[in-house]
Amino acid sequence: MSIAVGQKAPDFTLQDQNKKDVKLSDFAGKKRVVLVFLSAGLEPDLYERARLLRERYAEFRDTGRGSAGR
């Protein structure tokens, strides 16, 4: 399945750091959500992308937009 930029993401459930189930729909209308999918097989790239997201956190928080992706 592919999703275009700006398209609504389908609902899904993942576990958080405390192994508690969290659904994407739990945040609907409450908080902005940034979905980031990183391949664990590309470790150097993984760390670089995580660093960019941290650096641009305020941009996401304040505007709901960001340019941390490539």
Structure description:
This protein has 2 helices and 2 strands, in the order E-E-H-H. It is α+β, with helices and mostly antiparallel strands and 70 residues long. The chain has a domain of 33 residues. A two-stranded antiparallel sheet has the order 1-2. It starts with 12 loop residues before the first strand and ends in a 7-residue tail after the last helix.
Topology:
Blueprint: E1 13-15, E2 21-23, H1 43-55, H2 57-63
Antiparallel strand pairs: 1-2
Cα-atom Rg, whole angstroms? Answer: 13 Å
The helix/strand class is alpha+beta
Low-confidence stretches: none
Following the backbone from N to C, one meets helices and strands in this order, namely EEHH
* Biggest beta-sheet profile: 2 strands, antiparallel
Explain briefly what this protein structure is:
The protein is an alpha+beta fold and 70 residues long. The chain is built from 2 helices and 2 strands. It is 29% helix and 9% strand.
Please name the defining characteristics of this protein.
single chain; 70 residues; alpha+beta; two-stranded antiparallel sheet; globular
